[in-house]
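RESIDUES AND SHAPES:
===
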Amino acid sequence: MSNKVITIERFIIEEERAHPGASGDFSGLLRDLTLAFKIIWREVSKAGLVNILGMAGTENIHGDQVKKLDVFADEKIYQAMDHGGYLCVMASEENEDVLQIPEKYPTGKYVLLYDPLDGSSNIDVNVNIGSIFSIYRRVTPKGQGTLEDCLQPGYKQVGAGYALYGSSTMLVYTTGDGVHGFTFDPSIGEFLLSHENIKMPKRGKIYSVNEGNYRYWFDGVKKYVKYLQEEDEATNRPYSGRYIGSMVADIHRTLMYGGIFMYPGDTKHPNGKLRLMYECNPVSFIIEQASGKASNGEKRILDIKPESLHQRVPIFAGSEEDVTIAEEFVQGKRGLD
């Protein structure tokens, strides 16, 4: 990468120029999203100093207790995106139904799905959290969007990304032409290009899974994790185990270093716990664009036809070879070597 300073806005504009005929709507949509992430970062960074930590006293549609910061992030993303004229409809993990654009504002040709604050159970203990988003083109005619616009398979995404709020705040996104990372410089209030064209190794040395669920795993997953823990110089085993408990943080480490992130189905939750539309699809798009692979153990995540807004799926995502081997164990094609 050259030593010139490239803001995310400049990067978006230059990407747009590389596609003659672009209307500028998509670029405007991304710029509005970055504003929302800056506002959320501002509150996350001082959350312990203001009345924004702790429970809001309500549950979201999944039965999870809603944190005050969850509510704040959900509102700010919606408010940043409802008036630009780029979207026809939105959907959020925190809301049961689709979120319509107010009638006083124009509608556009894109659809936004988002998890406003992934890893929110870690808010009170200062662990990395993040916002995840997914963008589609609408499939219905003009006017207000519908559930049909939201329930599209992941391969139809035209953009996806996440903002990670940690020791530094990063925005990582793809529009189907590689994955790029931008680090927020609070002194100038800008996201600056810091990781251009991120690529994952074919195989890593880290596995990430909640081993507290071991007793509930199906045999294939148990055997795969045991395989990763065995010593074998030829395959660079054993792997190191790393698990943060915020999907966005665990995925970010996997993206940067390689290896595999897993949240498999088990006897308690056969369909897994992570949401297809708000977490697994956008993350899988990013992983694939960085030369990785994402699967539910049986098929490509991005090929799954969604049946509901809050559908859950198992996920195995990371370096291509690691995910392929995991699939072989899950499908019973392979046992311990």
Q: What stands out?
A: The CA atoms of residues 294 and 300 lie 6 Å apart. The helical segments are 8-17, 25-45, 68-81, 147-150, 219-229, 247-257, 276-289, 320-330.
